Amino acid sequence: NAGVTQTPKFQVLKTGQSMTLQCAQDMNHNSMYWYRQDPGMGLRLIYYSASEGTTDKGEVPNGYNVSRLNKREFSLRLESAAPSQTSVYFCASSEWGTSNQPQHFGDGTRLSIL
Amino acid sequence: AQSVAQPEDQVNVAEGNPLTVKCTYSVSGNPYLFWYVQYPNRGLQFLLKYITGDNLVKGSYGFEAEFNKSQTSFHLKKPSALVSDSALYFCAVREGNQFYFGTGTSLTVIP
Question: Which of B49, B53, B65, B88 gets the most CB atoms within 10 Å of its CB?
Fold first, then answer.
């Protein structure tokens, strides 16, 4: 039961470098999400995709782009990494339009920007 | 606007004692409420949910939560805490396709 898989688990970047965080889910969910988690701030939504072919900004989208590659995969790209983007990034998925279902989370990508 | 508040950053409880982790919410319609647990270096794991019906909801690992509409609260409870319950707990509310999370409460169970 893989659920939501994120790669890589850890990454260190230099300021200005770019990178793509990968996420895949095998639960046939329509909706997928990217969050960042910072101490004392809980989870903040970066982008989400309600269904294949659509993406929308969340609370903190600046400095990020996303691609919903297909129903299974949703990637997050940092075009020019900044130290403020040092964080733990979580991908999640859920059923779409069914309000009684929870989200399922991956184990995160720990990203450090030097 | 939807929001969730967890008023306690840290809760300490002795092993074997009952525990409560507090959550209050604000939503425009019917609340769909969730509790998640996060262990170190792991993602959030679903514990339980309230949709409609009984105000006392039972979930995984012996946890339960009490929904109180008049107080707009959804507190997480367990009758007897275990050391292995030590973790970070998040309350969340769902509206449509979006989830709104509290800032989390760190629970420490003292042996």
Answer: B65
